[in-house]
Specification:
Helix content is 30%, strand content 19%. The protein has 244 residues and is an alpha/beta fold. The protein has a seven-stranded parallel β-sheet with strand order 1-10-9-6-2-3-5, covered by helices on one side. Strands 4-8-7 form a three-stranded antiparallel β-sheet. It starts with a strand and ends in an 8-residue tail after the last strand.
Length: 244
Amino acid sequence: MEIKISNDKIENGKKAATKGGQAVKDAIKKKGFANIIVATGASQFEMLAELIKSDIDWSKVTAFHLDEYIGIPITHPASFRKYLKERFVDKIPSLKKFNYVDGDNPTPDKECERLGELIGKVEIDVAFVGIGENGHLAFNDPPADFDTEKAYIVVNLDDACRKQQQGEGWFKTFEDVPKRAISMGIRQIMKSKTIICTVPDSRKAEAVKNTVKGDITNMVPASIMKKHPDCHLFLDEPAASKLG
């Protein structure tokens, strides 16, 4: 795992976008197209703002949605579909295709199967992800399932994860935060050729320390990324403050 530390979250986002954007361009140059995974959350604001400025031929890029709450409509302020549509998809109209996770599907397991069939047909070149305050990767809260081969799974969100979502301002009360979500599985994320992990803010410092310095364990799901051959962790100084 390569670690880069920046002075602030804006610089951090720029560096992550530059590294990830180059990996996307390299894939297009090599084979004529690229497949990517895109995450959401406050940690991705600066990175996505820079990534959409990259001189990438987006008409050759297919993107996959990382995770989504179950039972929240796309019009809800916290909807990850809304987030990605407004901050990413609508900003690059030439994008070949974006595969959203439909959290409104009345049968979430069927939605997981649909997405699994789609992503199972391609190789992911770049995964843009973050780390949760509880160390989660996507919505794989501890103890995460490191063994499932399913590309997308239905997960229960733990209280720490739900408190983070409220704390970031997505929901008015803790009770408003959904208890279930559809998430890309750990093994599917790890299949990506390159992982760009962007983590700003001091509230993530403990999770970063546990990820980088602790054991690889499903109690710190993000720690699995240390096994990846081409993973790049981008931190601002507050997020890196407990690394020593």
